[in-house]
UniProtKB/TrEMBL annotation:
Alphabetized UniProt keyword annotations: FAD, Flavoprotein, Monooxygenase, Oxidoreductase
Protein origin, superkingdom: Eukaryota
GO molecular function, one term: NADP binding
Protein name per its UniProtKB record: Dimethylaniline monooxygenase [N-oxide-forming] 2
Key word Oxidoreductase present: yes
Gene that produces this protein: Fmo2-1
Organism: Fusarium oxysporum f. sp. raphani
InterPro entries documented for this protein: Flavin_mOase-like, FMO-like
PANTHER family given in the database record: DIMETHYLANILINE MONOOXYGENASE
A Pfam entry, by short name: FMO-like
Amino acid sequence: MRVAVIGGGPSGLVTLKYLARAHLSLDCDAIEARLFELEDSIGGAFTHRAYEDAELVSSKQLTTFSDFRCCADRDFLSATDYVQYLHDYCSKFRLWPSIELGAEVRNIQGRPPQGYVVEYAKKGGEVLRWRCDAVAVCSGLHREPNLPTIPGLNHVPEVMHSSKFKAKSQFGINKTVMIVGSGETGADVAYLAVNSPTKQVLMCHKDGFHFAPKVAHSAYV
């Protein structure tokens, strides 16, 4: 059996690993799996859409895979540390030979039981095809930015989606910054904004929100 895995983020890598080793624990023949990643490196959003001082909101105990624990001293990994962990994961389970980097999947044709043909392009423009029996789509939830439709937004001097935000220097000096959304990324960006030479920082959310420390310093909390 041959399986194509689309996406080289955490979900794609762990899918590749379990497919490659399925025959060791299940009553099945060895599976030939190949992972296709658009970028030149693995890691997904943690590599290509991370911002300055980004830190995971879940602890290393919850985030890392049960078959390969992280030995870092800190409980909450930085994006850089987590990407290094993913690289170590690929090396530990010898996944690199099955990973195609710089491979843009352009088309998938077919249906079961006949199988599928994955058409992908390499960085140099060469178009290749790989025939397989199944496809695992692991391209992630955050590949395409979602910009809300807000009347008058076109009159704002600068509008930036968080996927384009990399460093607090982008806030400029003595400017008013409004952050729409109060999720994990919104909270991180707000923290960077208030610690920058901005004039004012505003957060907007239609339902309201509560902030709490990531770590409780008291054992009685």
